[in-house]
Here is the input.
Amino acid sequence: MAEKEFWRWPEYRHTTPGINWREGKVISAGVDIGSVSSKTAIMVDGEMFAQSAMRTGSSSPDSAERTMNWALEDTGMTLKDIHYIVGTGYGRVNVPFAHKAITEIACHARGANYVWGPTVRTVLDMGGQDCKAIRCDERGKVQNFLMNDKCAAGTGRGMEVFADLLSVPIEEVGELSFTVDEEPPPVSSTCVVFAKSEAVGMLRSGWSKEKVLAAYCRAMAHRVVDLLNRVGVEKDFVITGGIAKNIGIVQRIEKELGIKALKPDKWRSDPRFDPMLAGAMGAALFAKALYERSKGQG
Amino acid sequence: MMKANYGYADGSGQYYITLDTDKCDGCGDCVRACPASVLEIVPNEFDIIDGGDIMSVREEHRKKLKYSCAPCKPTTGGGEPPCVTACPHGAITHFLSSAKGQVM
Ligand code: SF4
Ligand code: SF4
Here is the structure.
């Protein structure tokens, strides 16, 4: 089992420098347990303070504890110091220490509003196992949404399967998919299982890895653009979730949609704005609001 | 206005149940009218601060509405299904269509 695991994306933690959390009035946290990744965002008075992202294990409660503990690591803060915690994502009801669970749709819209500001009107959340097109108002409140949870194509899990199949590290998939002379037609299968066997066939018939990747990225982009058109895209448009970091997908979506995503690279210069953590950030902001309300009412 | 769309589109058509969450007061009439236990009343997670309860499509039915809602025949011109007629506030809309090309 010494083989390289190409699908592995980097797990990480981060603390925002220069924040003295002991002086904060409200310490809130959001824990997003997705099917593929688990994320924690800890905020001090509504500003990102500490965060972590790691792979979801076989047990949701366990994954929740691990991502929370990792985010807390070396901050001097403990779970007891956090006033209010909201769980979100597919495992949201299985976060043992959460005070409340809120759907990831609401959290992604709120998180996108935090990361990119009040001009955001359309959010595409590309998660591990499904895709959601969300319309929201200037406060990040959901107005309309559509999910596409029919199968794993067009999702993080589908991308992992492909990275592994082609032995390409997942972070390099995007770049590599642009190294083709000519953009190939998209893979025709919308199901990831069939797309995989289609890809094997392409490789056998002499297609390069890059070409197969390009064909797959294109198919993925096509599927989500379908979803987006159904809710109607209004600017500003942003992409959240792990796949937001894959330029091979992002640029193909932009091209097909005819609309550019707002600053998809913001996270590169400032890790606080990781699009993968948008759901956890939204949850932390709801946690703050819920805590303040509980105080306000005595 | 906030619309929650549950369902999917695939090669055979589109299958969506749409709820206008602002109109829904969580009375549960639709849940009682549904012969297939597709619907449920849950806390309004979209407006957690003062949203109250609303109707939702049960998670296990979201990927198979074509089959779950088959008893009501909304895709074959059976008229408005029980959930839609039961709602006193007109909060539910169905976009269930086995023909391609119907625009939401
Ligand atoms: S169409 Fe029939 S089965 Fe489907 S939700 Fe409405 S009442 Fe229930
Ligand atoms: S009948 Fe209408 S108002 Fe009552 S719970 Fe159902 S959707 Fe909401």
Notes: Residues 12-112+269-294 of chain A form a domain with the Nucleotidyltransferase; domain 5 fold (CATH 3.30.420.40).
